[in-house]
Amino acid sequence: MRSTLGRPRLLVAVAAAALTAAALMLVPGAMATKGKPAPPAAPAAQADVLLYKGATTVALDPGAAAALTSLDISVAPSGNAYAGSKGISFPISFGVVDATTLAGQIRHSGGLKFTKDGTTVYLSRYFIDIDDAPSLSGLVGTAKNGGDRADLFSLDLANLKVDAGKRYIKLSGVTLKLTAGAAAALNGAFGDGGTPFAEGLVIGSATVAAHTYTKGV
Questions:
Q1: Dist CA 115 CA 119 (whole Å)
Q2: Rounded to the nearest 5°, which phi and psi values hold at 132?
Q3: pLDDT tens column, 44-56
Q4: pLDDT tens, 97-124?
């Protein structure tokens, strides 16, 4: 079971270009010396981009909402997550991504609770990891902020949109799809012997919005 999630190549390709001006420290090329070839340019200093004072907001897919309603399962924010007109928001507690590749992790507080007939399952403390197979993990248990960490959603970036500036970044159009492990956990808790939850079920779309600070190493 992974404690961190993936770091997507697609996010690297799209967002790195948007962040380059603000995130990279460029080193001027070395000047040539008369009669001698110019020495190779020094490598650019690495930098980390810190994310803070933001949130990831998830808008529940209408199909998923209808399925949950038909099963008499209620979904509500837990901890310091909160519901708004655009969905349920999970505060970003801390995030660090590489300025060049955006490889890294974004951590959140709060979560969701699924309740039916006195049974409650909490999904909390989400981690978004950016790598080859982007996904979102969280703690799964019957108590707030308790349980084991498991991959909950795979992240589909086909419709990803990036808006980045010197002090902020916004990633939208990220589709959340249920993983096999999360589907099995929900079926075990609420399936009544059936398997209404399946791997790949679209749960909703996510938007990450945060302030950023770039720190040179």
A1: 5
A2: -60, -35
A3: 455 788 999 999 9
A4: 877 677 789 999 999 999 999 999 999 9
Which helix (H) or strand (E) is 19 found in, with range?
helix 9-23
Give the three-class secondary structure for 175. strand
**Per-residue CA distances from 146 to 31, 121, 178 (Å):** 58, 10, 20
Q: What is the DSSP string of 25-87?
A: BPPPPPPPBTTBPPPPPPPPBPEEEEEEEEEEEEEEPHHHHHHHHHTT-EEEEETT-EEETTE
Structure tokens at 160: 């990803």
The Cα-based distances of 200 to 52, 152, 177, 188, 189 in angstroms read 30, 11, 5, 17, 18
pTM, entire model: 0.77
For residue 162 the two structure tokens come to 């990036």
